[in-house]
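Re-run requested by the PI after the first attempt was lost when the workstation crashed. Everything re-entered from the original request form. Ligand of interest: adenosine-5'-triphosphate.
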Amino acid sequence: MTEPVLTVEGLEAWYGESHILHGVSFEVPPGQIVTLLGRNGAGKTTTLRSIMGLVKKRKGSVRHQGEELIALPANRIARSGIAYCPEERGIFSSLNVKENLQLPPTIADGGMSLDRVYELFPILKTRGASQGTKLSGGEQQMLAIARILRTGARILLLDEPTEGLAPVIVQQIGTIITRLKEEGFTILLVEQNFRFAEKTGDLHYVVEHGEVVDRFERAQVAGNRDKITRYLGV
Ligand code: ATP
């Protein structure tokens, strides 16, 4: 078996006094699309934020190619080559598309060039001078993904990239994510849209009450559909 690129073990996290994660454990193999599935409030977003060092009180282990990240500050974790695209997308609404793409700091290896970004997302070139706020939901999501590609990160943590988007745009996002995988990126995806997760993901973990309670490889999904649907309460 290939070494995982990211190993999360016994991850716990708190918001103030609230104990939210109770020991999340899972592995992300290189070059795969891995999803975290689960109901609202299960702890998926908190897991991504804890990996990125954005939750102050956390413990356990997060290893990136053997390097322990759990005690590092968020900027060091980002510089190790992991990028996070939050559900609210994190783009600057007062800046235009091109400015948004020029802003992200790049890590040592250098990020994706603007030309490459425009090749992946032609719409962003067309919309270059438009302000962040003037973009459609789908365009904003593409800009958000494009921004993290500019950093040069090879592991992308995406929180519900399909949220609130029309089916045709969801499909476009799926095509882009799959293309990024083919180019060697590793993607950890939080998803509420199970149909999207199923189509896109290679490996799925179910999060429940702040723990990973089950795991399904792509080939196991069809035979476990009822079980997974029960987990998700859909
Ligand atoms: P969702 O899809 O609704 O975001 P989730 O699985 O991502 O669900 P989290 O957002 O990780 O769940 O939330 C886990 C729990 O932590 C929830 O009970 C939520 O109310 C709580 N929580 C999230 N953010 C905070 C915060 N900033 N302060 C306090 N509690 C929080």
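Saved to the shared folder this time. The chain is about 35% helix and 25% strand.
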